């Protein structure tokens, strides 16, 4: 019998492929080896299932990000790790990009009902603030950097590249998803962020 987790896994794949509007509950249930009645018993509605999938996607990323333990690293290396992680995670999880792009098309209509996701990111900003403070104290980082703006920039450097990988590769006639291209992008992003932070 299908479990809640198997339904979530099937829903993640279907939503990433077709979005909220295009996904069909019948197809999600079939992928999970469940029936619609079981799906509705667990989640109540397709929209509630969408939000649960979205929250799970954010939580999975934050769990891996926390595991970096940047507090134990020198400030510059901590920042490099955050930049590296965000690019690599996005490249490894195209479903995360697809889900976020879809929710943005809905203008965060569903995400704004989540208490879970904002709570995940408050500790992240505290961690980033602590790394910035260590970097300032050691004379490595400039003063007055806004941790929210910095994090948005770090995420954007990776997310835009991966979200537009196919079009950028076509426009520039380059395989930007190839390992060497990703490594070059990673180096560039780290240089951009550390160059901005340099005292």
From TrEMBL:
It holds the Pfam family TetR_N. The keyword DNA-binding applies. It comes from the Bacteria. One of its GO terms (molecular function) is DNA binding. Residues 1-61 form the HTH tetR-type domain. Residues 24-43 bind DNA. InterPro entries: Homeodomain-like_sf, HTH-type_TetR-like_transc_reg, HTH_TetR, NicS_C, Tet_transcr_reg_TetR-rel_C_sf. Keywords: DNA-binding. PANTHER family: HTH-TYPE TRANSCRIPTIONAL REPRESSOR SCO4008, TRANSCRIPTIONAL REPRESSOR. This is TetR family transcriptional regulator.
């Amino acid at each position: 019998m299908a479990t809640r987790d198997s339904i979530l896994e099937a829903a993640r794949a279907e939503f990433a492929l077709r979005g909220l509007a295009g996904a069909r509950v019948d197809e999600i249930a079939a992928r999970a080896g469940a029936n619609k009645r079981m799906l509705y018993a667990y989640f109540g509605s397709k929209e509630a299932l969408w939000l649960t999938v979205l929250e799970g996607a954010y939580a999975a990323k934050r769990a891996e990000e926390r595991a970096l333990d940047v507090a134990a690293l020198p400030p510059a290396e901590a920042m490099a790790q955050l930049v590296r992680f965000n690019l690599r995670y996005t490249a490894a999880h195209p479903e995360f990009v697809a889900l976020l792009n879809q929710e943005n098309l809905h203008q965060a209509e569903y995400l704004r009902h989540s208490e879970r996701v904002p709570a995940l990111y408050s500790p992240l900003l505290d961690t980033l603030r602590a790394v910035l403070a260590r970097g300032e104290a050691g004379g490595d980082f400039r003063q007055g950097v806004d941790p929210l703006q910095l994090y948005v920039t770090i995420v954007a450097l990776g997310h835009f590249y991966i979200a537009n990988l196919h079009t950028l590769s076509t426009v520039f006639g380059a395989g930007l998803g190839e390992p060497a291209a990703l490594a070059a992008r990673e180096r560039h992003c780290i240089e951009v962020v550390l160059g901005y932070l340099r005292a």
